Amino acid sequence: MTRRRAPDAPRFEDLLAQRLTRRQVLQAGAAIAGSALLASPDVMASRSPQQLGFKPIRGTKADAIVLPPGYTHDLVIRWGESLSSSVPDLDASKLNAGVLLEPKAAEQQRSQFGQNCDAIHFFPLNGRSDHGVLCANNEYTDDGLMFPDNPGLRGIRNAATRAYVKRHPQVVAVTKAAQGVSIVEVERTRGRWQFVKDSKYNRRITADTPINIGGPARGAALMKTKDDPAGQRAFGTFANCAGGETPWGTYLTAEENIQDYFANLDRLKARNDVDPFIVDAHRRFRMWSAQSLYNWDVADSRFDLAVTPTEPFRFGWIVEIDPLDPTSTPVKRTALGRFAHEGASPVIARNGRVAVYMGDDDKFEYVYKFISNGRFEPKNRQANRTLLEQGTLHVARFDASGKGQWLPLVFDPKGPLNAAAGFRDQADVLIKARMAAYLLGATPMDRPEDVEANPTTGRIYIACTRNESRTVESGATTYGGREIDTAPNAANPRGANNFGHIIEITEAGDDHTSLEFSWEVFLLAGDPSGDRLITDLSQVKADSAYYAGYANAADLSPIGSPDNIGFDRIGNLWIVTDGAQPDAGNNGCFVTPTSGPDRGRLRQFMSGPVGCEVCGCQFSPDDETLFISIQHPGEGGSTADPRSHWPDGGHSQPRASVIAIRKEGGGPVGS
Ligand code: FEO
Ligand code: CA
Ligand code: CA
Ligand code: CA
């Protein structure tokens, strides 16, 4: 890798000084959006955004859910609990004895709650806050925590994990069944949340479930395989990270790190009968040159690029699921583009069109917005079910002036996305959205994870989790199949960015269909103690922390690696983390007001067990329950040597689970 500093490149300190002016202007008056998403005036009148009365906790390494005094949690469902009384629960005490290698394990897992829950969304039944349907993503498996003597993710580099899968190919069926989505009815009875076994809503969607392909890429040449010669039906969904919910009550699940499932890019390259454009597209998605992370190709040739070169094009989409109709077939909404989707947050714009905000979670990837052609019909749910079929995908360019542009990803023989650039039609543009975004000059970000709209202001928040490869100086390098400059830019101002940051977007005219916006650094995560807390972004250093200009460090909690985010009804921003914390504590949940004098006053609300990532961050409609996913507790351990015993304690195996946090005696969470 060569390192250079372009002589004519603006210094990022200068760019940040321009940004400061923008911040001061914004602080002079809060923008009010006209979005249909806004909370009703009575909600605003009854609670102020500063109403966060809990006593903050400190970071901790405790192998437990730690909450402020006066708060409690219920364990809603664990990995392996059966959704049906006709199928037994997983006996986790037998994991180290090989219970998941027994003949019926995969079949049973297809009826049990999946592994490593990530996003969760709550769909109320009859408008109730104590009864609904929960959709949970089951993102991935760490096989070392499931099978005895399986090195899991730790054995990838020395091929030991692959050798294990070859000895026990049934691992593939079990782990395919443990991923995807779990849909389960939940209810609060006698004060405690629990799931409803045998509910008509209970459903598993796995890496083999038939899923329709919708939108402009349906039937495209690149979508066809020998198992689906029409290119209209994919098999399964996996790597489901964050998600979203539509205003018409459907669930959006985001297919993220799909590159880790496909093996043998080198062998595909060696074939002389394959369109080189397919190889380029896989390189842009950083497919594995030989074995893959999960080794599914050992038992299923769909995951061998040399055998099924186009199979990866059928993944990396947003998938829409109707949680209230367990017989419905989910649909991959290809109009929303193909990349490592973290989540999808829809907003109804004033003109009735739907804007869907999305992040692509890889280093130096982009932020996107889809705008539907059709308009939301509040009283016609069925009509809304096709709103995500047609529209225009855009990608964000963040300018140093504090303004930005949404750039349309549209095939046009006379535009930049044409045949000379390698695109034959709009399906090509969507399938290779990352390539198209790069050609349009989108701003490479520090791993955009969850993107959410504030329900009280309409402003958009983007969690950029971190980027250790962001360098202080300019540096041209090849990453993800194209050359980029790894230097900081105004919207990604730190090199290296070890703790991540959050960007705030205000759409021009508070119109979510606008193609222009203004933006602000809202948070530079880190340790705000000592002289690290800055209120002037022109002073940023690698270890600086910036909390939306909030100046009293004694009020603030350290935070690192923001990932999923969520809002309560009064516009407080809730953040859960996935990565090293500045105080060396476990991952947790944090909250900050986004307006008023406490804007940026971020405090820690919860800490998760050892080795976990905290995900989800979803409120019941009355704000009295906060649903959280605890993903991969005990990461780095094994079935013989568990590093966490959460949730069951003693000598038990760790199990990813969904919890529901409540205030004892009732009241909004955080109040
Ligand atoms: Fe699956 Fe981007 O976290
Ligand atoms: Ca995530
Ligand atoms: Ca979210
Ligand atoms: Ca993450």
Radius of gyration: 23 Å
The low-confidence parts are 1-45
Averaged pLDDT, please?
A: 92
How far the N terminus sits from the C terminus, by CA atoms, comes to 51 Å
Percent strand equals: 25-35%
Named once each, the bound ligands are: MU-OXO-diiron, calcium ion
Explain this structure.
This protein has 671 residues and is an alpha+beta fold. The protein has one domain (12-79, 114-122, 131-140, 179-226, 239-256, 316-325, 339-663). The chain contains ten helices and 33 strands. The strands form seven sheets. Strands 13, 14, 16, 17, 18, 20, 21, 24, 25 and 26 form a ten-stranded antiparallel sheet that branches. The protein has a six-stranded mixed sheet with strand order 8-7-12-11-10-9, with no helix packed on it. A hairpin with a 4-residue loop joins strand 17 (391-398) and strand 18 (403-408). The protein starts with 11 loop residues before the first helix and ends in an 8-residue tail after the last strand. The model is unreliable at 1-45 (pLDDT under 50). The structure holds MU-OXO-diiron (FEO) and calcium ion (3 copies).
In short:
This protein has 671 residues and is an alpha+beta fold.
SSE arrangement:
Blueprint: H1 12-27, H2 41-46, E1 71-78, H3 105-109, E2 117-124, E3 131-138, H4 160-167, H5 170-178, E4 180-189, E5 192-195, E6 203-205, E7 210-214, E8 233-235, E9 240-245, E10 251-255, H6 265-270, H7 276-284, E11 318-321, E12 331-333, E13 345-348, E14 353-359, E15 363-365, E16 367-375, H8 381-384, E17 391-398, E18 403-408, H9 426-431, H10 433-440, E19 445-446, E20 448-453, E21 460-464, E22 476-479, E23 482-485, E24 501-507, E25 516-524, E26 546-547, E27 562-567, E28 573-577, E29 588-592, E30 603-607, E31 613-619, E32 625-631, E33 657-663
Parallel strand pairs: 7-12
Antiparallel strand pairs: 1-33, 2-3, 3-4, 4-5, 4-6, 7-8, 9-10, 10-11, 11-12, 13-14, 14-16, 15-19, 16-17, 17-18, 18-25, 20-21, 21-24, 22-23, 24-25, 25-26, 27-28, 28-29, 29-30, 31-32, 32-33
The structure holds MU-OXO-diiron and calcium ion (3 copies).
